[in-house]
Amino acid sequence: MALALESVERVVAMVKVTPLPSAPDVVLGAIDVAGEPVPVYDVRRRLLLEEAEYGTDAVLLLARTDRRAVAVAADAIGDVRTIDAAAVTSGRTFGPGLEHLSGVAALEDGLLLIQDLDAFLTADEEHQLALAEAEAAHV
Q1: CB-based contacts of 92, cutoff 8 Å, min separation 6
Q2: Are 28 and 79 in contact (CB under 8 A)?
Q3: Which of 26, 32, 39, 100 minimizes the number of CB atoms within 10 Å of its CB?
């Protein structure tokens, strides 16, 4: 999994994530970042991978989309890589349900799935998250 470097603000250690019961399944919950509630996205769930607990070595990538600040849960952070644009295939060419991928790059050690955080949630999920956040604000 990869993100475009320009969307990442910083990496922080995993903290307790407060569940948002009405949020979409791909949202673990929310965290507080300088007084602002920030939803935590789970790429494992988006890719329909086996769920696992994020352990003590896990991290959160704090990033910004066009609409909001977000955090992305990750087991670890790898190297920052420069990838030739010609080596990246549009994620949308892989079929329906992968609109959250801005691209896929073939590397020597496997495929690199580049997430598009602006497209990570569907329109329905965006609406569901907004309702969940509003509900949590009134608790």
Answers
A1: 98, 99, 101
A2: no
A3: 32
Q: Which domain holds residue 55?
A: 2-137
Q: What is the CATH number of the domain that holds 27?
A: 2.40.50.180
Cα separations in angstroms, 24 against 50, 130, 134: 17, 10, 14
48 Ramachandran zone, left/alpha/beta (phi>0; psi -120 to 50): left
First to last CA, the chain: 34
CB burial of residue 58 (10 Å; 0-12, 13-18, 19+): middle
Q: Which residue has the tokens 């691209």?
A: 103
Chain-wide mean pLDDT for the chain? 89
Identify any residues that bridge with 36 across adjacent strands, giving them in sequence order.
Answer: 33
Assigned token pair, 78: 């790898």
The number of distinct structural domains making up the chain is 1
Please state, as a whole number, how many other Cβ atoms lie within 10 Å of the Cβ of residue 119. Answer: 15
**Residue % of the chain over a pLDDT of 70:** 97
pLDDT tens digits, 74-102? 988 888 888 888 888 887 777 667 788 88
